[in-house]
Each structure stands twice: as structure tokens, then as C-alpha cells.
Amino acid sequence: AFALFWFFHLRDPSQDLRFAAFFHANNVAFRRETIARFPFPEIPAYRGQCSVLGRTLRANNIPIHVLMGARVSHPCPLGVRYFVGRALNNGRDQVIVARIDSGGENPPWRSVYWNFSNSLQRTVAKIRRHGDELGLGPLSRIGALGVALTYFGLKAIGELVTLKSTNAIQRLFPI
After folding, report:
1. Sorting pLDDT into bands at 50, 70 and 90, what band is 143?
2. Distance CA 58, CA 53 (A)
3. Do the beta carbons of residue 70 and residue 135 sit within 8 Å?
4. What are residue 31's phi and psi, to 5 degrees?
5. Distances (CA, A) of 157 to 3, 109, 138
6. Are the C-beta atoms of residues 88 and 161 closer than 8 Å to each other?
7. Rounded to whole angstroms, how far apart are CA atoms 41 and 56?
8. Residue 18's beta-bridge partner residues?
9. Minimal CA–CA distance to 7: which of 161, 155, 166, 175?
10. What does the pLDDT read at residue 12?
11. pTM surpassing 0.70?
């Protein structure tokens, strides 16, 4: 279920080197001069540093590549409390990164709906596109969609709470 909606892509068997729009901190390499000039930003979020740094690199015409043959393993959240906390904090981080991108302004409230809707649409497309290759039957597909709906619903709550009170999620559900 997580493979079909989580922010990591499904494994690609190719060994290609491709241009990428983003990267993850647990599988990135930089030239020394690049990371010295553009260090990871210090932002008050659990996640989001890679997004902000990636936009900075692209704005400075520094290409990002992904080596498709590189592998990393990432476990799904361990336990219900961590799942809930991770989703709520993901929503918090979404608002914080949007504030950084806009120069300190809160994103509009309607952005919560659009984030939820876009995430759900991408997940439905991934379930349709990759369900067979992952061996998912109809009930497994419904289960995967249910897990995704739960996660995205909690993420939306995290966004809404953060728009009202920046640190409430971090205090109630630290991860």
C-alpha cells in the first residue's frame, strides 16, 4: 500500500542516469563545491529541506540527476502512532515549505483541498498503473486506497492545524 502512495517512486529496473526534479537526502551525492555553496537549509520542519534545496539548485542552473540503478530501502511507518504523527507532520511541513516559497505568507486555506485532491489523484493513477505488477487483487487495491485516504486525510488535518497554530502538531505528535 505504501509503495503506491508514498513519496518514493517504485523501483525502476533500468540503470539509466536521468535528470530529476527532486532528490531524497538518504540517497544523494554532491560535489564538494556545490554543497559548500548551497548547504541544506535550516528550516523548522521535519522534512522539506530537500525540496527547498532542490528548488535553489534548479534556480541556479545546477542539474539534479538520478541514477536509476541506485537502491535504497525505506521501511513503512512502524505502528499507528508513528503513522498518524508522520502524516500530521507531513501536513505541517507542507505549510512551512509553502511559507518559505512565498516569502513568509501562509498558503491559502483552499490549498489543503488541492493538496489532498492532487495526492489522491496521483495515488489512484499509481494503483491503476502498478497494481498488476505488484500482484494486487481488487481487495488489496481497495485496502491500498484506504491507507492512502487515511494518510492524506491526516496530512490535511496537519495542514489545517498548522495554518492556525504553527507548532501544535510538533508539540502533540513529535516524530
Report:
1. very high
2. 9
3. no
4. -70, 145
5. 22, 12, 29
6. yes
7. 10
8. 66
9. 155
10. 74
11. yes
Confidence of residue 8 (pLDDT cuts 50, 70, 90): low
Sign of the Cα torsion 100, 106, 111, 116 reads positive
Report pLDDT for 7: 65
- DSSP string covering the chain, please? -GGGTSSSPPP-----EEE-S---GGG----HHHHHHSPPP--SSSS-HHHHHHHHHHHTT---EEETT-----PPP-SHHHHHHHHHHHHHHHHHHHHHHTTSPPPPTHHHHHHHHHHHHHHHHHHHHHTTTTT--HHHHHHHHHHHHHHHHHHHHHHHHHHH-TTHHHHHS--
Grid cell in block for residue 159 = 495542514
**Grid coordinates given for 67:** 541514477
Q: How many CB atoms lie within 10 A of CB 174?
A: 9
What are 73's three cell numbers? Answer: 530501502
Dihedral Cα 63, 5, 112, 82, nearest 10 deg: -110
Kindly report the number of other CB atoms within 10 A of residue 54's CB atom.
Answer: 18
**Per-residue pLDDT tens over the stretch 91-102:** 999 999 999 888
Instruction: Out of 70-74, 85-89, 130-134, pick the least confident.
Output: 70-74
